[in-house]
Fold:
Amino acid sequence: MRTAKITRKTAETDISVEINLDGTGQYSNETGVGFFDHMLDQLSRHSLVDMTVRAKGDLHIDDHHTVEDVGIALGQALVAAVGDKKGIRRYGECHLPMDDAQVACALDLSARPFLVWNVDMPTAKIGTFDTELVREFFQALSTHGGITLHIDMIHGFNSHHIAEAAFKAVARALRIALETDPRKADAVPSTKGML
Structure:
């Protein structure tokens, strides 16, 4: 089973993340940040990665530490669950439309973290959620998950739709990248022999 459980406790947050890469998209996410929970639900549902996240953070300051640290823990869980990467497709991509918004994602589970973020949020807030935290989450996920991650907004004018399209596009790309390649299930997808 490609599963992992990560706990992360700092002076700012106390986080537990449990994932199953071969799941059906079942989720139970409770971070204390409503919009973020909604986005994590989308990430799980559309990647088919079962996900349970519990986070207690210093929300009296703001949502930043909670969102970033969940990204860190999820990235670490992904690395632990995927193991040596034997048999995975490695690459994934998706153009995701959501009403006015279209967001493209291309990613590589390369162990070489790099984030390209070409997304402009029209507003500073979605409800009480700071829209800049969407990038912070993906930066943490990329860095600690060893993912080369490109996220590009094609168009859009509603911040909620843009953010949700980004999470869904990444989820769909992850789903492809994590799948077993039936033509090469016995090998790591690299000429180096390891990732």
